[in-house]
Amino acid sequence: MVSESEPFVKIINEPLKSKNPLVIGGFPGIGLVGNIACQHIIEELGMKYMGSIDSRYFPPLAVLFNGIVYMPVRIYESAKKEIVVIISDIPIHPTASYDISKVLADWMQAINTKNVVSIAGIATATGERRVFGGATNAELLEKIKDKTEVFQVGTISGISGSIMTESYLRGLPAVSLLGETPGPNPDPRAAVEVIKVLNNIFGLEIDTDKLLSQAEQIELELSKLAEQVKTTETSPIPKKEFPMYG
After folding, report:
1. 83 has a pLDDT exceeding 60
2. What is the pLDDT of residues 85-136, one digit of tens each?
3. What is the pTM of this model?
4. Which of 33, 95, 153, 241 could be stapled to 179 by a disulfide with Cβ–Cβ 3.0 to 4.6 Å?
5. Torsions phi, psi for 96 (to 5 deg)
């Protein structure tokens, strides 16, 4: 029996070595842009698995890599680069985003986060691969305005939007990077463009050649994963239409 006092969201991690990390988050959404970008960053930097996020909000499934079970929402660290990545292999239901973003903001404050980057996708019919951006303060907006298409008016839906809102309320400096994609299918090319912008903003050197060369294979594999998650996830709440951003 579950105790009433048990939290709905738990973050369990080893102590981080980074003093003031850059925290990058990628959750499944349009084009799986955030998920693909974060997975590539983890691999390129050889980041260490540090912990996970668990919740009763999450769908009942296990994630397998080479036969080993992993938590569906994981935390990785590159102590050398002072970068922490939060990556999810499962979609976060809109009704869970509020509580999860609050717990994440508490945790990011506790680890003295320097900057927060929320990566997601945005669907358009232009056929381009631009990166749209937004920030929680004027200083960060100035930093990204020449490197992104800055939103004049718009909304960011789902967990990506919740993280940005909660960061704003807490005074956490946060940037939203949305990779332009033509539709819902996995889009590694949009992820490549987001990583290039991330490099420019924060002076990183994350190589994207491998991700670009494997784009077709990744698109096929992640399409299968997305379908598996879709058929496994159960939702007691009727689905609604949400804005196109996120």
Report:
1. yes
2. 999 999 998 888 999 999 999 999 999 999 999 999 999 988 889 999 999 9
3. 0.85
4. 33
5. -95, -15
Residue pair 159/119 in contact (Cβ under 8 Å)? The answer is no
- Token pair 């987001």 is found at 194
Please give the radius of gyration of the chain, using alpha carbons only, rounded to the nearest integer: 17
- For residue 83, what are the β-bridge partners? 22, 78
The residue behind tokens 């939007």 is 161
203-240 confidence digits (pLDDT tens): 999 999 999 888 877 667 767 777 777 676 545 544 44
Q: Show the domains of the chain with their CATH numbers.
A: 9-232 (3.40.50.10900)
